[in-house]
Design a protein that fits this description.
Blueprint (H helix, E strand, L loop, with lengths): L1 E8 L13 H13 L10 E8 L12 H4 L7 H14 L1 E3 L1 H4 L9 E2 L6 H4 L2 E2 L2 E6 L6 E6 L15 E5 L2
Parallel strand pairs: 1-2
Antiparallel strand pairs: 2-6, 3-6, 4-5, 7-8
Helix pairs in contact: 1-3
Length: about 170
Amino acid sequence: RRIRLHNFYVPAGGDEPDREINPKFGHKLDFIEEMKQLKANGEANTSSILVGDLNIAPLEQDVWSHKQLLKIVSHTPVETEGLLQVMQRGAWLDLMRQHVPENEKLYTWWSYRAKDWEAADRGRRLDHIWSSKDLGPHLQRIDILKEARGWERPSDHVPVTAHFNL
């Protein structure tokens, strides 16, 4: 089986969700627009996996408070709708949501600004693992190493791993 791995980093987009006053946000939106051309099944006999820090939490349960974050970069409607269009147009399967229903909270990132990040649990799902639909039945599990956020000198992102039976 041939598998093409796409490792993506979508620019964070700065702090202000306005293309006119924040060129970084405009760059992020342009990046998302270009991603809409990426197809999960781009070549015959080749499956695809897309992983990375996409810096967007697309679903309501991918953030600690949907209403409070609607105007915060990473969860604005223009970003979330754009990323969902990338998934739909490319025929991508959101592997992290294959075993965790959309109505359950799911995070991979916790801010450095939180004094007690674990107790507050104000996370976002900014890191993603997608695949072509043919790989979905082979997914055994997804591991989110939340405890890594509590390590000495941690990243604000935690490792996410997909396990397949191929």
